[in-house]
Amino acid sequence: MSNVKALPLLEPEAHEAVAPCCPPLTERPFTAEEAERTARMFKALGDPVRLRLFSAVASAEAGEACVCDISDVGVSQPTVSHHLKKLKEAGLLTSERRGTWVYYRVEPSVLAAMSKLLTTTATP
Amino acid sequence: MSNVKALPLLEPEAHEAVAPCCPPLTERPFTAEEAERTARMFKALGDPVRLRLFSAVASAEAGEACVCDISDVGVSQPTVSHHLKKLKEAGLLTSERRGTWVYYRVEPSVLAAMSKLLTTTATP
């Protein structure tokens, strides 16, 4: 019999990026650390090709898409894969391998947190 | 007497960037043109220093700030000016010169439009 126990899988980088850390940008000046974490997410959406891919996944009928579903953005499949990986690293997408393909889905909590960052508080 | 008339000042680039062009990213895949316009705004917030400056202006008491008000982000005044100009070019800030200083304020309609882009529609 083995002594090895299944430990919960830790994904430190993903978790770090995903955490909706911060108040709305209009509430108070961000600290350097808050800005560092948050800028990563905005940067991931700051590229036109990546933004198109993100909206392709985000609006996919089944709520998920693989590279095999995406063919009309005018870049090669390796480039599509590269950008989807970047979006995942920024915490905006999650992925699951099934057979040959990796399927991506939007992480709704992160999207909601980003949306909240941009809400304007009514000022006098 | 002079024939020169004051013409209304056109700011084509600023106007173009400001227009809240697009539906939520989750609604349908973005076209290349929509992605191009929208990525500019996200890219502007995709830099930690720029994001700190943006939140400093956005949360300023009078609703506006000049370079003279911002001194604690650890970069030089010319760098602060450069980043504020970038944020303005992306349509996220507006500016007004008064005396020696240029005062910046957040463009709330653009912020609201970006926030809306990130809203998640309930999917089955």
TrEMBL record, chains A, B:
Keywords: DNA-binding, Transcription, Transcription regulation. PROSITE patterns: HTH_ARSR_2. Pfam families: HTH_5. One of its GO terms (molecular function) is DNA-binding transcription factor activity. Residues 30-124 form the HTH arsR-type domain. CDD domains: HTH_ARSR (cd00090). It comes from the Bacteria. Gene3D superfamilies: Winged helix-like DNA-binding domain superfamily/Winged helix DNA-binding domain (1.10.10.10). PANTHER family: ARSENICAL RESISTANCE OPERON REPRESSOR, TRANSCRIPTIONAL REGULATOR, ARSR FAMILY. This is ArsR family transcriptional regulator. The lineage of its organism: Bacteria, Bacillati, Actinomycetota, Actinomycetes, Kitasatosporales.
